[in-house]
């Protein structure tokens, strides 16, 4: 979760504790022991809010700019003050936010544009694949304690690109590559009540010196700027990596 989306996410959820939304310090993450209980809520992705990609030749003919908001809404017969109209406006605003220091980003409106961005980041001859949080057995999302099944394992990759699906009229993925160091970890959990298993992807931002000193994340974790911030990538959010991937125990 990049700076812009993380700030919005935690301003919205600032009434709950950091653990409940999968937000940790690096010391907390690396200190997780087998059998430890973590109170977390894992939402299930509402696929109706994230329609499929359009073909690039179609997507390129449709304006994608806040300055063209009225034309976009008219084209799709969406009322400006409707919930859908407000979602369109919010996504366009977020996509046009200035990139953070050391960040390269795109709001990809087609699969082709997404893959082209990844090829530029990783290199034209480099293979890449994505990893994400998986819910192999989850059925009904409930807030419950999840037991740690094994120590966190680091996923080593020379470069990582995070992609977040944005609610829109067709598929839009906000993807960004940060020059500052990030680390990714796997965490295996099982729910106390439901027995649901979750294969969790946790991303740690190792350098937060460019973040605002008033960032909501720092307040929630009771830490200061420059400290490491780790957070769960919820279902549907992807991290693209370079194989071969090596899983290394964090212990």
Automatic annotation (TrEMBL):
Classification via InterPro entries: BURP, BURP_dom
Residue intervals of the BURP domain: 23-243
A Pfam entry, by short name: BURP
PANTHER family: BURP DOMAIN PROTEIN (PTHR31236:SF59), BURP DOMAIN PROTEIN USPL1-LIKE (PTHR31236)
Source organism of this protein record: Gossypium stocksii
Protein's name according to its UniProt entry: BURP domain-containing protein
TM region positions: none
């Amino acid at each position: 979760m990049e700076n812009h989306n993380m700030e919005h996410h935690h301003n919205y959820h600032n009434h709950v504790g950091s653990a409940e939304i999968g937000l940790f310090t690096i010391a907390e993450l690396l200190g997780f022991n087998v059998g430890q209980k973590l109170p977390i809520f894992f939402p299930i992705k509402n696929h109706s809010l994230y329609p499929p990609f359009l073909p690039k030749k179609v997507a390129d003919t449709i304006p994608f700019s806040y300055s063209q908001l009225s034309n976009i809404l008219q084209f799709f017969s969406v009322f400006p003050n409707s919930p859908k109209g407000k979602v369109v406006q919010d996504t366009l605003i977020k996509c046009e936010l200035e990139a953070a220091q050391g960040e390269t980003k795109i709001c990809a409106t087609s699969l082709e544009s997404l893959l082209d961005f990844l090829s530029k980041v990783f290199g034209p001859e480099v293979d890449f694949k994505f990893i994400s949080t998986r819910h192999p057995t989850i059925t009904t999302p409930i807030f419950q304690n999840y037991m740690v099944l094994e120590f966190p394992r680091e996923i080593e990759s020379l470069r990582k690109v995070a992609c977040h699906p944005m609610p829109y009229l067709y598929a839009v993925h906000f993807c960004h590559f940060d020059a500052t160091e990030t680390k990714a970890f796997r965490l295996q959990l099982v729910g106390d009540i439901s027995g649901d298993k979750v294969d969790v992807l946790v991303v740690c931002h190792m350098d937060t010196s460019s973040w605002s000193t008033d960032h909501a994340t720092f307040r929630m974790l009771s830490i200061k700027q420059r400290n490491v911030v780790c957070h769960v990538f919820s279902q549907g959010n992807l991290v693209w990596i370079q194989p071969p991937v090596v899983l290394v125990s964090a212990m």
